[in-house]
From TrEMBL:
Protein name stated in the entry: Sarcosine oxidase subunit gamma
Gene3D superfamilies: Heterotetrameric sarcosine oxidase, Probable tRNA modification gtpase trme, domain 1
Residues annotated as transmembrane: none
Stored InterPro entries: SoxG (IPR007375), TrmE/GcvT-like (IPR027266)
Amino acid sequence: MTNQKHQFDASPVLVEDMAPVLRLSLRVKPAHRASLGQALGLDLPTRVGARVAAGGTEALCLGPDEWLITAPEGTDLTTPARAVYADAPHSLVDISDREVTLRLSGPSVLDLLAACCPRDVAAIPVGSAARTVFDSATVVLWRDGPTDFRMDIWRSFAPHVRALLAQVQEEFVAGL
């Protein structure tokens, strides 16, 4: 029996800060999901991890009654949501300043993420997303392509996550 060591691709992963976006946390009961989604111009997905996009706005289902919505800065989603509040009560909270987003891309991105994430990142389908942890930080991973991810991180954890990403990349290059 031979020991086979997993070969990591030591190619660097490009880690870059993304431009700020409007980021909203939405909670609404399933009975009011369709009405509120129509007001926002989105068909809010019902499957956890599913994403939809329309006109630069994206919605990610994080739970049975919870969505993360992103849109270009300056987009007004509160006015249409407020207009249907009487018929579709909900909580829509601007969390834009709470988080930052990193883009991670390159041939070894799956190995890089797997080093600090207990989730099987390779199993996240392209076009979906998942809330998970990276070391001790809660993150949302958006899989935009086979080797292209976005990672939303609470601003206070960003230095820790960036340092871990750099350390793991250094270890890959050194062949550890």
